[in-house]
């Protein structure tokens, strides 16, 4: 893992297309802005994990379906 120190107003560039900018620091909270192409999906980690779990459950449920269940 790369660890960098940045101050308010400073940025980090990821590749050619993604910029992460430090907007504000207030105690233990850091407000960041992310500039990325529209096709790049950006999620908070906890939301990403919920989506991933939901997708796994949906896949399991679809494997449990029988062809006759789909015809109804």
UniProtKB/TrEMBL annotation:
The keyword Repressor applies. GO terms for cellular component: cytosol. GO terms for molecular function: mRNA 5'-UTR binding. InterPro entries: CsrA (IPR003751), CsrA_sf (IPR036107). Pfam families: CsrA. It is found in: Cytoplasm. GO terms for biological process: bacterial-type flagellum organization; mRNA catabolic process; negative regulation of translational initiation; regulation of bacterial-type flagellum assembly; regulation of carbohydrate metabolic process. The keyword Manganese does not apply. Keywords: Bacterial flagellum biogenesis, Cytoplasm, Repressor, RNA-binding, Translation regulation. Belongs to the CsrA/RsmA family. Homodimer; the beta-strands of each monomer intercalate to form a hydrophobic core, while the alpha-helices form wings that extend away from the core. PANTHER family: CARBON STORAGE REGULATOR. A translational regulator that binds mRNA to regulate translation initiation and/or mRNA stability. Usually binds in the 5'-UTR at or near the Shine-Dalgarno sequence preventing ribosome-binding, thus repressing translation. Its main target seems to be the major flagellin gene, while its function is anatagonized by FliW. This is Translational regulator CsrA. The gene is csrA.
